[in-house]
Automatic annotation (TrEMBL):
It holds the Pfam family Mur_ligase. Pathway: Cell wall biogenesis; peptidoglycan biosynthesis. The gene is murE. UDP-N-acetyl-alpha-D-muramoyl-L-alanyl-D-glutamate binds at S31, T154, T155, S181, Q187, R189. GO terms for biological process: cell division; cell wall organization; peptidoglycan biosynthetic process; regulation of cell shape. This is UDP-N-acetylmuramoyl-L-alanyl-D-glutamate--2,6-diaminopimelate ligase. ATP binds at G112, T113, N114, G115, K116, T117, T118.
Length: 487
């Protein structure tokens, strides 16, 4: 419980009606969750407008309302605070409500199109191995030390973030690594947090449904670095065309990492196969179980970040060689009959291309590469033909199927994917709408030493069709079929 006026610290107020010296219980931005003595923050969203639910929130017991537009009729005894931006206000209020928890630990944000979960999770593992109590906010899971919580978003809303950071404070967590998504930045979910560092992975095609243009998407990511304080570090991938742009206006101390360009942290790939990667990192050789060229970037980023956070080089390298792959990122199962099934969260054109190129660089010519892939519904449609093109050009056989269709017609999504397939690749493709059946078909086609890639859903343990989530686990399903078929 806190005084409303204390929670409003750092929020720029446009108008106030009523008393701000009232004690509030909790902060909510969803009227359905409001109860007695809470404060309701009305947000203009993408689907509806929270201002429509102000009366409802008051009926449920809200004693204060934060809004961008004052309602025509105000209720006596209720406090109304008008602000310019409700999402921004919510973020500051959440931080104040939980006693500014990001100040009490070293918070590092990871942003970019691909690699956020991998980098954040590996840093969590690395710092845990180094003996620290660590927190993690990621797509796959939330962690407070050893305790695990379910994640609903890549970057949760600001109230959720601050509530977990508070838990981390209480548990004595010293470092927290979090993914910072473009939706998160655009919706002020990370506003008001005190970052000790920011890491940029890469920028390619994704979420252009939400951000309209690539430039807008890039600028949203850049805003994260623009807001870092001078005390923080800003670490960027110098091989990415937008790597330097990201740090153009940051006040933070700038550092670069790269495989190809001149950089503060350099790596070279010495060996790359299904066993892992042998890297030369700033003149030290290090072996890692992680597979694929793109993971060389991830490993280099975590090495650089660990140095910038004060770990000793030798210690970091020792721990790096013990790190385990992140769930759903190039996870694989080799059957009795020597068929390799790989499950990977590649759900963007760039990620799919990287994974397929990695497999092709390791695969020998007479082994088939059978790819099972789809695209999510209610998400960026323009990536569909691109992924269709990439999958069919870089695999020997492709089964297009459903990802999470959400509210869309799965067959229409598949048609849009197929539009990207070039005529010379038509003979490689087929479509099986039901994902389970598609995986089964791939298992039936595969023979000894062939490789099956199941892309797009990685760690997800559900499939969402028409708003309903049913249990679904790519790795479990492919493993079961291969066993059942005695392959
Ligand atoms: C498109 C999008 O990002 N939407 C997020 C947004 O909701 P919204 O703006 O659409 O909300 P809305 O439904 O329009 O409602 C507006 C307001 O009215 C309120 N409301 C609504 C109904 C009601 O009865 N009463 C009420 O008060 C809502 O609580 C909300 O505050 O704000 C919500 C609270 O933070 C998020 O949960 C929600 O995420 C949705 C579920 C989602 O699917 N988001 C995905 C796209 C996302 O955020 N993904 C990124 C990862 C992207 C990546 O791959 O990098 C992530 O960080 O997870
Ligand atoms: N550094 C990288 N560069 C390019 N592709 C990568 C990189 N790291 C991982 N990938 C690919 O992208 C997929 C997603 O990786 P990861 O989950 O780490 O990314 P993410 O940024 O967290 O994604 P999301 O936005 O969905 O949370 C992986 O399964 C892999 O195929
Ligand atoms: N964070 C991404 C994940 C996409 C994963 C894919 N399986 C899908 O459902 O589209 C998103 O919400 O767009
Ligand atoms: Mg992620």
């Amino acid at each position: 419980m806190k005084l409303l006026k204390d929670i409003l610290y750092r929020v720029s107020l446009e108008a106030v009606v009523g008393n701000t010296a009232v004690t509030v219980n909790e902060i909510h931005f969803d009227s359905r969750k409001v109860s007695f003595n809470d404060v309701f923050v009305a947000i203009k969203g993408t689907l509806s407008d929270g201002h429509r639910f102000i009366e409802k929130a008051i009926e449920q017991g809200a004693l204060a309302v934060i809004c961008e537009e004052m309602p025509k009729n105000t209720v006596n005894g209720i406090t109304y605070v008008q602000v310019k931006d409700s999402q921004q206000a919510l973020a500051y209020m959440a931080a104040n409500f939980y006693d500014d928890p990001s100040k009490n630990l070293k918070l590092v944000g990871v942003t970019g199109t691909n690699g956020k979960t991998t980098v954040a999770s590996l840093l969590y593992q690395l710092f845990t191995k180094a003996g620290f109590k660590v927190g993690l906010l990621s797509t796959v899971q939330i962690r407070v030390g050893e305790e695990t919580f379910k994640a609903t978003h890549t970057t949760p809303d600001s109230v959720t973030i601050n509530s977990y950071l508070k838990k981390m404070n209480e548990a004595g967590v010293e470092y927290c690594f979090m993914e910072v998504s473009s939706h998160g930045i655009a919706q002020h979910r990370t506003t008001g947090l005190h970052f000790a560092g920011g890491i940029f992975t890469n920028l390619t095609h994704e979420h252009l449904d939400y951000h309209n243009t690539f430039a807008e998407y890039r600028d949203v990511k850049k805003a994260f670095f623009d807001q870092l304080p001078a005390s923080a570090f800003a670490l960027t991938n110098a091989d990415d065309k937008n790597g330097k742009v990201m740090l153009q206006n940051t006040k933070a101390k700038k550092y670069t990492y790269a495989l190809k360009s001149v950089a503060d942290y350099k790596a070279q790939i010495l060996e790359n196969d299904f066993g892992g990667l042998l890297l030369k990192v700033n003149d030290h050789e290090v072996w890692t179980k992680l597979i694929g060229n793109f993971n060389a970037y991830n490993v280099l980023a975590i090495f650089a970040a660990s140095e910038l956070l004060g770990l000793q080089t030798v210690e970091s390298l020792r721990h790096i060689s013990e790190l385990e792959a992140v769930s759903g990122r190039f996870q694989y199962y080799i059957s009795e009959g020597k068929i390799t099934a790989i499950v990977d969260y590649a759900h963007t054109p760039d990620a799919l291309q990287n994974v397929l190129e990695t497999i092709n660089s390791i695969r020998t010519k007479n082994e088939e590469l059978i790819t099972v892939v789809g695209c999510g519904g209610d998400r960026d449609r323009t990536k569909r033909p691109k992924m269709g093109h990439i999958a069919s050009a870089l695999s020997t056989k492709v089964i297009f199927t459903s990802d999470n269709p959400r509210t869309e017609d799965p067959d229409k999504i598949i048609e849009e994917i197929e539009e990207g397939v070039e005529p010379q690749n038509f003979k490689k493709i087929m479509s099986v709408t039901n994902r389970r059946q598609a995986i089964k078909a791939a298992c039936q086609m595969a023979e000894k030493k062939d490789i099956i890639l199941i892309a797009g859903k990685g760690h997800e343990t559900y499939q969402e069709i028409n708003g309903e989530r049913k249990d679904f686990d790519d790795l479990k399903i492919v493993t079961e079929f291969l066993k059942e078929l005695n392959k």
